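Notes, p. 3: input format for complexes.
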Amino acid sequence: MNNRFSPYFFSILLLLGATRLSTAQQAGFNYDESKVPSYSLPDLFVSTKGQEINTITDWNFVRRPEIISLFEDHVYGKLPRDLDGITFTLVNGDEQAMDGLAILKEVNVTVQRNGKSITMPLTVFVPKHHQGDAAPVFLLITHRGPENIDPTRKEKSDFWPAEMLISRGYAVAAIHVQDVSDDNKETFKEDILTKLYPEQLTMSNGMRGLGAWAWGAMRAMDYFESDPDIDATRAGVVGHSRGGKAALWTGAQDTRWAITISNESGCGGAALSRRRFGETVARINTNFPYWFTDNFNRYNDNEDALPVDQHMLIAAIAPRAVYVASAEEDQWADPKGEYLSLKLGSRAHQTIYQMDTKLPQEQPKVGEPIHMGSLGYHMRGGTHNLTALDWSYFLDFADKLFQK
Ligand code: GTR
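Output follows (404 residues plus beta-D-galactopyranuronic acid):
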């Protein structure tokens, strides 16, 4: 029998089509640009008390801290800064990793607070030819299967193409979200929330999953600052989708990151919430109640009442570099809303820091990345994913920024 035309073959095709639709575009949400409601965004340059913000001093001492605390109170929750101690233990090393091109360091990052501790494993590869000359680094915050960040390199994945980064002279690192807070409704409280910061669980603006993941990225940065093989002043934090939301929240708060990269982070990440295109605030809070602070529920079907929108998160990263990446078929994440957020948020780079970074009105097309000083954007063809092509664009951007 010719299998190609069997009914079995057609039902597989239908199934594949349905799966693709369910991840790319869920039914019952708006994907029609003409149906995006009219909205007005909070003004980046007017404080809540009505003060006009024009100078770097006012931005740094008034508006930026205010923006961060609005995101803490209404979206992601407070991010605890206090800890009693942090130690880094090399639990496995390999001087001849990747056929001798890299050094592998598997590090346990242990944090203590109030007599309790948690340990977050951190995997790092450092390019060998950079010895004596500290290498810039990219950290991935990942929620996907741990095989994607396999330190043994028996499994290799384009999601974290470590060999590519090494060959281009970058150190490459990864943390898995499950080591700080499980990506799971039932068990997210384990690890840092129950053990280190239990008071957060009682606060309506307490940290939840995304905040915990950002906290983990900051602890990885603490490690980078201690490793002479790594140049922590040239570090990028990267996340895909939910990891991209966490990456933006990391970069907005922690000024040690030179580059913040959001890959298809969508709702609660780079996309403007008020557009209600694809995933909405109500949908994300219903499906993932453990990602955001409890107060974020107030904005279910009530986006216009939010005192922030996501362009302000981009602005909080200024003057440091920020890169937003979208995928053409990832309408669920609202590629247009992601670009608009970057364009509007980067007015902080332009207006406050006088950087020459005016992004084009028109959203860049597939295969035409824009790398303009501290701002990067690309639209990749295809569906929701983080691929080797996305990474190669990130590295092109970083090469230029760091003048490698
Ligand atoms: C989806 C979720 C998105 C995005 C995505 C992912 O189910 O609705 O907000 O975070 O998961 O992380 O891949």
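The CA atoms of residues 222 and 381 lie 36 Å apart.
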